[in-house]
Automatic annotation (TrEMBL):
Cross-referenced SUPFAM superfamilies: SGNH hydrolase
Organism: Pontibacter ruber
Family matches, as InterPro entries: Ester_Hydrolysis_Enzymes, Lipase_GDSL_AS, SGNH_hydro, SGNH_hydro_sf
Domain of life: Bacteria
Boundaries of every SGNH hydrolase-type esterase domain copy: 6-170
PROSITE patterns in alphabetical order: LIPASE_GDSL_SER
Pfam families assigned: Lipase_GDSL_2
Protein name as it appears in the record: Arylesterase
Amino acid sequence: MKNILFFGDSLTAGYGLPASQAYTSVIEKQLEEGSYKNYKVINAGLSGDTTAGGVHRLDRWLHQPIDIFVLALGANDGLRGIPARETSQNLQEIINKVKHAHPETKIILAGMEIPDIVPGRYAAEFRVLFRELAIKNNIAFIPFLLEGVAGMRHLNLPDGVHPNAEGQKILAKHVWTVLKDMLEV
């Protein structure tokens, strides 16, 4: 059995929804329905988590085999206005820890964006940090996990921030587009 570990925040945890509707569960179903029954999905999503929090809680997940590691943290950093440099350093530390513990693990980084309505250069700096990390570390990259979902009222819960079941299916499509090329039958 091969493990795919999804390490993220409320978007990964499927905030406000039954676990079966989180994008990780949607992907798990795709794996089971396809020729990938040898993969197990582990949802390590924690609502409210930041990249700094992720650095501190990662170690508890590294004791088990990880074949594919999907890093989907950063949204809460952006919402809190944490400096892009700090977010980047934390994500790099997580990538380093995974590579050190499991050198053969394939890593996918999910990009995040914040609305351009945020004043100054912050939105642009925040957006680019994910692409720069993916290039620097030569890892797979999902440009924007919430592409087509962010700001779309009908795809989000009443809070306007967290995807509903239909929105989670779109997140799953974004992840699957990158993940499918890493799977072995």
